[in-house]
């Protein structure tokens, strides 16, 4: 149980909590229903993809299952992850922001569900319905985060600008799907990945600050972790350059060197964990967060190497170090961190959190190394998808009971 001073500090985040009666625990704060739906959705989507791509089953109502898979893993999951991050974090970052709870939260979640259904059945219901529903949920997120962009101090404006860019790219994607743009939808999704990586790097600065400092406070470590903007900004520049060159000049060998530079820049962010007075690289959550950057760095570096050797293996397999690995683990860490702290508990590591991270890393290497073991490609496709879902099965086991009950410290939310 937190002491009185800690509880008083926590209540400062909830001064504007809506005065709505009979709010069930699963609608008591933005992250709760999102995580309750997102974990099962990730399991369903990835298992289904594993069966489809390994040739076990066929989905008759989907003409292009690759586009469906990539879109859902990028935009479908992104909107839920960003929604959890913003609806939980903005009331803390900007006092006066009214938390999204109760009936309003339920309607937003229904809109996200409708967006997922519309894209699953896009070949039946049409592009326009999917575009309207999915752009509506992202548009709502931008509106909810408007104070971030309009903040005079511009403390977190980069998050808002990245969301606006992603909205534009998603609009471009649907324009292509509807025949109004001639760009290949897969190329647009690659551009989207680059901008989403930038958004994740920006968000991870905030997650690192909260998680690592919370961890050190609980451990009695007398030091402060600061995520330095120059390192993140350099990584963002390199990722943006790689994304632009890949789109406009995909066959230019300079892209290989930019890939190596992007990998090095992303990896350099991990130097923030080297504190002046204390050694924290042996702390579980620091290792978890460290792995996010390592997997992303490997993805860009391996893609760069693949281009430079002149005899490409499969650059998209290496891209999975970024998607299944870096992004997947980033989403998982946001879910786990919020799942502990914002249900009124201390940030805790145990065998379950260790296994969650281990399975993400294992699945990423299984998928990313397929070019070197082509004779086992179908087996690796299938089992990497299954292994990737196991962390979210464990998340359900550990956190669903927290998400379905009031906060442990008695605070609203």
Automatic annotation (TrEMBL):
Key words, A-Z: Membrane, Plasmid, Transmembrane, Transmembrane helix
Domain of life: Bacteria
InterPro entries listed in its UniProt record: NnrS
Protein name: NnrS family protein
Transmembrane segments: 34-53, 73-93, 128-145, 157-175, 187-204, 225-249, 255-275, 287-309, 321-340, 352-370, 382-404
